[in-house]
Amino acid sequence: MTTTTLAVLVPLLPFLGAAAGLLLGRKVPGLVRPLAVLPTLTALLLAVLVAVRQGGGTGGGTAALDAATELTPTGSVPIELALHVDGFAALVAVLVGVVASCVQIYSTGYLRDDPRYPSYAALVSLFTSAMLLVVYSGDLMVLLVGWEIMGICSYFLVGHYWETPEARAASLKAFLVTKLGDVPFLIGLFALAADTGSFRVTTILAKVADGGLDHPTLIALLLLAGVAGKSAQFPLHTWLPDAMAGPTPVSALIHAATMVAAGVYFVARLLPVFAASAAALVVLAVMAAVTMAGSALAALAQDDIKRVLAYSTIGQLGYMTGALAVGDRGAAVFHLLSHGAFKALLFLGAGVIIHAAGTNSLAAMSRMNGLRDRIPDAYWTMTVALLALAAIPPFSGFFSKEAVLGAAEHTATGHADSVPAAAGWIVLLAGLLTALLTAAYATRLWLLAFHGKGAEAPDHGKQPVTMTAVLWVLAVPSLAFGLAVGVLPDWFDGHSLAPTLTTSVLGTGVALVGALVTYGAWRHTTTLAAHVPMGAVAANPDGDGGLVEAEAIATHAPAYGDVASAPDPADPGRLLLGPLHRHAAVGFHLDAVYAALFVRPVQAAARLVRFLDREVVETYVRGAGAAPRWLGAAVRRAQTGNVQTYLSALLAGAVVLAVAAVLVATAGA
């Protein structure tokens, strides 16, 4: 079988599995799980085979796979069903296949009693197919199809628990915010095609290399708006933390391999287009810096374990876009691959924790004793993943994050001629600050989730093997993927990704400082919390004057509802952030700003339109209908059937006309 055929089958098989699942899921329940898992696993195997044939493991690899057929004549700029598979695309496709397969297998246990599992599994398969289409596509219009299908799938998957208002609001918010970015993105694609005369990726890159772009800054900024929405970058990142209302496996899929990875992949694929504008690179660097630092601060203040990981994803995507801002696609893709493994592990591990603890709240978990003993698989694998997230050597996150910082240092010191040094300094300083904060919130999550003190953790039963086995599968790349640092350059750009001494020392140093300071703060706050007597009232460490019942803190019996909302005096994040905590906990009020600038004005305009429609337009419409009715009623009353009445009316009319004629004649004389 040719490589082209294999590449076509990779996105096609999950699509066929999704279609079959939707059609047969209700009628033949026994086929639901095989149709969910087997097509995705087969697509993974084919993606690996394509990667072996197209990759660079032999010192440069083979030429990129390019194949195309014109769909239909569209005028001067044709749209083609095109493939463009190089080592870069092959690696990302393998990542998508691995994470999607793990998610499907995990979901068979996590949602085993969910009556809507058939539609859920089909949508996950469709989601996977759409991302693989984005990865392998060689035509930007075909890429856009996969791009938009992912947005639709995310709407349904985030809103899977549609009975809850949080899920409904989160799905709608995710859809609207990403669509807000997609409008300028589509305009940017048309502008790019107008400048280059094609939607083909290879043609566009060739034209850019020849200096064929007339409006590089405008095109790059329009495209960045779509990337910011899809990859949850500032200022369009607010949808991603709310998307945690969906099932945990969906969160793992969105955060690790699909949806948010699509924006980073797109910029990496068309990096020469963005590099043609120095202004666009600086804008990208600023966007990445604000995203990194702001999301790390927000993660340090979150109570929901999934929201901590959501803000973590935003920050790690900031590292990737930061690497692209300094012109290093290799470092960005390296971190994309590394992050995909350990972030999928973190979310799936969080699902096991939630299943065991019966709550998402870190505050509630911090009051449970022995939770880690009930879920040893999640404890050890999440420890590995959190060490990778904090970039502690020798875990994979260390190598990939240091590759980003090394690229930023290289640019900042003036060794990259085509990239402004300012972009390098922005990314480097923000990256070091974020490394400190990342280690801090990773340590906080580990301490609160697994080292709680208080009543014995509840026993919610043993987790299914399909959930725990997947964790160990993902722990392997989280631990060992850094060893690929010497091999990966051969797959695409060819330059070294080995960490430099300066950034390694700085990055690891600040990470260790963040972890140790957080541990010290936790020891301090835990000691203070232990001395609060039962039934007493303790001051809220926020400094905002709030009060909390210590008795509520010490117990977690009543379904955790009131307890989860109570401030936790053992939370080191409150001590570390101080007065900033309450602002960071709500994402620095960005949602409130959007509500004031956009939501409320739009709602007010909608109310005005409704008022005008009901009270003005409908008044005229009702009047236009009522006037003939009134006239008809008057005429109907005159039709009495009495001849004398008719003759009297005729005589009166004749008299009136005669009088009028006399008056007119007199006036004329």
Architecture blueprint of SSEs:
Blueprint: H1 3-24, H2 32-54, E1 65-72, E2 79-85, H3 87-110, H4 117-136, H5 140-158, H6 165-196, H7 201-209, H8 216-230, H9 239-242, H10 248-256, H11 260-269, H12 271-275, H13 278-299, H14 305-325, H15 329-357, H16 362-365, E3 368-369, H17 371-374, H18 376-389, H19 396-412, H20 421-450, E4 455-456, H21 465-480, H22 501-530, E5 537-539, E6 547-549, H23 550-554, H24 561-565, H25 572-577, H26 581-585, H27 590-638, H28 643-668
Parallel strand pairs: 3-4
Antiparallel strand pairs: 1-2, 5-6
Helix pairs in contact: 1-2, 1-4, 2-3, 2-4, 3-4, 3-10, 3-15, 3-21, 4-5, 5-6, 6-8, 8-11, 8-13, 10-15, 11-14, 11-15, 13-14, 13-20, 14-15, 14-19, 14-20, 15-18, 15-19, 15-21, 18-20, 18-21, 19-20, 19-22, 20-22
Enzyme class: oxidoreductase
Protein name: NADH-quinone oxidoreductase subunit L
Subcellular location: Endomembrane system; Membrane
Through-space gap between termini: 109 Å
Mean pLDDT: 86
**Percentage of residues in strands:** under 5%
What's the helical proportion of residues? Answer: over 70%
The rounded Rg comes to: 31 Å
Class derived from helix and strand content: mainly alpha
Number of strands: 6
Low-confidence stretches: 533-565
Main β-sheet, in a few words? 2 strands, antiparallel
Shape: globular
Number of domains: 3
